Amino acid sequence: MRVGYVLAAYPVLSETFILNELIEHEAAGLPLQIYSLGPELGGSVHDVFGRIRTAAQYLDAARDANRTVERMAAELVRRAAEQGVTHLHAHFADVAAEVTGVAAGALGIPWSFTAHAVDIFHRDVDEERLARMARAAAFVVTVSEYNVADLQARIGEHVDLYLIRNGLDLERFEFRTDVDATAPIVGAGRLVEKKGFADLIDACRLLGAGGWSCTIVGDGPLRGALEAQAHMFGVDVSFTGALAHRELLRHMRGATVFVAPSVVASDGNRDGIPTVLVEAMALGVPVVSTAVTGIPELVRDGETGLLCQPRDPMALAAATARLLGDPELRRRVTTNARALVEREYDARRNTAQLRALFGRAARAVSNA
């Protein structure tokens, strides 16, 4: 069995979950090919990218201004046939999945895709295309119970749909047992509406003076507006810009509380379960987040962290202050959080489930 991964772009700084998946497949000995529909991205890449041995192939048809699904699929067919690919898998239910489905049909091989968040929740999602792709695929994977229920309601029951959570290599996440209550509050993610960082800055204003500071790791189109908001409020918030993964983890390890104030954006876009939340919990950093999509499956209020309603800076401030002021609460939620991550977000175990599905799809074809 040789699996071809089809991605709209590669490597994407915010998509460490895909890199983790590829690393675990390689470690398990699964032969891989990686195909990107977009050009090779310049700029910062995570250090974990260097652990992937399989070289990505960038489709020439994808670089053409007149590119079409059919042209990209034709090139993918040629390359996959030459390289002996027996299963195609796409991440995101977007053009990557559409190209994958067309190519797999031409090759006569099974295919699948993983659905995440923007690809199924954005207001511009083509519901007919989503349903058509899901029914044509050998199986569909998604990353939260919330997504499973939502997709079942939208695409019907005649789809093989599986929950496989994004995972971490937990050996790289040493659990800390001490918390410096004077360290910064940290948030991380793309500076876009769905991340809710405007609410975090407002929460910092409500926390008032107390010797605290806040660091927001990431970059994006809202950076200027967020910096202006912090300046207007006179709060101690620093913006690092986009960082390599090792630098992101350094900021997390030094945090007193990690806050992920996710919201449903005006265009319907929203987080699935942010990988940075899983990472913070794996490291032993107490977390505050919001009840958006699958986040309550990870951040269980009072058990593995503190949970607020979205777009409520006062609740974010109160939850953060509660963690800052209660060492026993911090100890309890971080211990429970690490245990949950080990049970449900271990990349080695979760990618093994995905490989089992690849194998089942291959057997179904050979027995047909």
Characteristics:
elongated; 368 residues; seven-stranded parallel beta sheet; 13 strands; six-stranded parallel beta sheet; 14 helices; alpha/beta; 43% helix; single chain
Structure commentary:
- By secondary structure, the chain is α/β, with parallel strands linked by helices.
- The chain has helices at 16-27, 69-82, 95-107, 118-121, 127-136, 145-155, 197-207, 223-233, 245-253, 275-283, 295-298, 313-325, 327-344, 347-367, and strands at residues 3-7, 32-36, 56-58, 87-91, 111-115, 139-142, 161-163, 185-188, 214-217, 237-241, 257-260, 287-290, 306-308.
- The strands form two sheets. Strands 3-2-1-4-5-6-7 form a seven-stranded parallel β-sheet, with helices on both faces.
- Strand 6, helix 6 and strand 7 form a beta-alpha-beta unit.
- Helix 1 crosses helix 14 (347-367).
- The radius of gyration is 21 Å and the shape is elongated.
- It starts with a strand and ends with a helix.
- 46% of the residues are buried.
Number of H/I helices: 14
Evaluate the radius of gyration.
21 Å
Elements, N to C (H/E): EHEEHEHEHHEHEEHEHEHEHEHEHHH
* Total strands: 13
**Share in helix:** 40-55%
Mean pLDDT: 93
Please outline what is shown here.
With 368 residues, the protein is α/β, with parallel strands linked by helices.
